[in-house]
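Collaborator request, handled under Task 6.
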Amino acid sequence: MAQSKFANTHARNLGNIFKIHDSDEILYKIPPFQRNYSWDADNVSTLWDDLLESHQNFDVDSISAQYLLGATVLIPEDGTNYNMIIDGQQRLATLTLYFCAIRDLYHQLDGKIEENPNDPRNALYLNLLSIIGNYQIKNGKNEKTGWKLTLNNVDQAFFQKFQEYQHKDNRFITYDEKLVTVEKSRKKSHKLLREAYKTLHTSILDWLVEQDDDNLESPEKMKIEQKMEIAKKSAPLLLTLTNNTLKNIYLVAIDGESNTEKILTDSDAFQIFETLNTRGETLSRSNLVKSLILSCLS
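Structure tokens returned to the collaborator:
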């Protein structure tokens, strides 16, 4: 019996997708035909609700606790370490912002990285680094060799501002209220990226505040400085939140390559892309036509 071209379809947790414990450099790229970042605050809040529900129900020994978040279609780019994201780019971009927000809160609430290699906070920090970028030890230093996810040409330079850790006087800039440092852009996708990060940062911070049993005030009524002070007590929960997300959140990955051969062609991937997008958030006819033309030219 001939092998199905979709035989390499399987559920993978985020730890596997981001290859945080793998020496191989696996990178992801959004191809030029894909639309710009388009998730609004409702999409981002829904994702956070899913991640939080998964965290609250996490059971390391229970298969039933595994949380299926959606699907992604990946095609390896010939001659590189990149996988092209044919579908699922909005979700993966937002998940990257989610991990950026956790990394930033780690710095804001917990201060400098401890030098003790056995400190579990170092494992958290290294995991977060390897989710956002690929790092290798060079000359005794942990140096970045590439971003884990690259958006299209319109969005990448702006997206990279969140991938990079920014700080001033050892205090991270929170992109909130008077602390805004990422410049405002007139591009709609850039505004959405900025709002997505802010939504995730605020949601995670508010959740940390709610974990303090001594605090009876709603975080929505607090200024950010007050929330940051209260959340310091709950900062260690960021380690658990990160680990549970990586272990328990799954995506159905339709991979275009098996261990021995390419089993999904570019045309196959475009077909799946059109099918998924006409059943989910509607694409404009012009985008679907453009994807078909690019499919024929590839």
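The cover message to the collaborator said: "The radius of gyration is 20 Å. The chain has a mean pLDDT of 74. Please let us know whether this matches your experimental observations."
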